[in-house]
Write a structure and sequence with these properties.
Largest sheet: 4 strands, parallel
Shape: globular
Number of helices: 5
CATH architecture: 3-Layer(aba) Sandwich
Strand content: 15-25%
Low-confidence stretches: none
Structural class: alpha/beta
Radius of gyration: 14 Å
Number of domains: 1
Order of helices and strands: EHEHEHHEH
């Protein structure tokens, strides 16, 4: 099973390509939705990674897919456009998951 990246910049794509993760670079909402549709129909893709900036272009669609589709897993990843407070974001995720404020 593979990962697949949908990114808004070449830097993220190149970095993950070095780790063996293929992907595409898109910028517009319709491109994001088209790339997402194609990736979801790839039999060998288990996880789709999408940069934060692209998730913000169509949050309703991505949230709905996360709730309804079991495979592939759709996961948002931060990139250079994301929040500089990634530590606080991670603390929030952990606190929400375990129910204890860190």
């Amino acid at each position: 099973m593979k990962f697949f990246l949908i990114s808004d910049n070449i830097d993220t794509q190149m970095g993950l390509r070095l780790a063996g993760i293929e992907g595409v670079v898109v910028h517009e909402r319709h491109e994001v939705l088209e790339a997402l549709e194609q990736a979801m129909h790839m039999e060998d893709v288990a996880v789709i990674l999408i940069t934060t900036k692209l998730v913000e272009t169509c949050p309703d669609v991505i949230s709905e897919l996360k709730l309804q589709v079991k495979k592939p897993l759709i996961e948002e990843i931060p990139d250079r456009h994301g929040s500089a407070k990634i530590g606080e974001t991670i603390d929030g995720y952990v606190s929400e998951a375990i129910g204890v404020k860190l």
